[in-house]
Amino acid sequence: EMDVFVKDGFTGEPYMAQVWPGPTYMPDWFHPNASAYWQSSIQRFYDSVPFDGLWTDMNEASNFCNDGAGQVCSNTDPSNCPTGNLDTQTNCCLSCETVDGSNSYDFPPYAINNDASYQALAQKTIPMSAKHF
């Protein structure tokens, strides 16, 4: 509704990633509506379950699914997503594809020493082609 999620760089749809709770969209903290969205969401939760503290975990753009090539991901089979088992929770349940292998943002013409092992720029995060506000 408030259009506050990071978009994939090709379809304009929110970029789907996977972290501990499963498939998720990443908030676009640059979007002018992001603070209002977050405040409203927290208030609705507080109205249901009054709390005295809040921990924002996984506030970085982590992604268990991206081997560095997934520019667009989708949840084609929700029953395939692991739940409740720490041994399998990081197994990717999304279908991710490379839309444009020649995109120099995602695949620069030089090696990056990402993760001290020359991994792709988007290894375990969102692709560089993802769009922010």
Automatic annotation (TrEMBL):
Record has Nucleotidyltransferase as a keyword: no
Family: Belongs to the glycosyl hydrolase 31 family.
GO biological process: carbohydrate metabolic process
Organism per entry: Rhizochromulina marina
A single MF term (Gene Ontology): hydrolase activity, hydrolyzing O-glycosyl compounds
Pfam families, A to Z: Glyco_hydro_31_2nd
Domain spans labelled Glycoside hydrolase family 31 TIM barrel: 2-77
Keywords attached to this entry: Glycosidase, Hydrolase
Residues spanning the signal sequence: none
InterPro entries given in the database record: GH, Glyco_hydro_31_AS, Glyco_hydro_31_TIM
Coiled-coil positions: none
Protein name: Glycoside hydrolase family 31 TIM barrel domain-containing protein
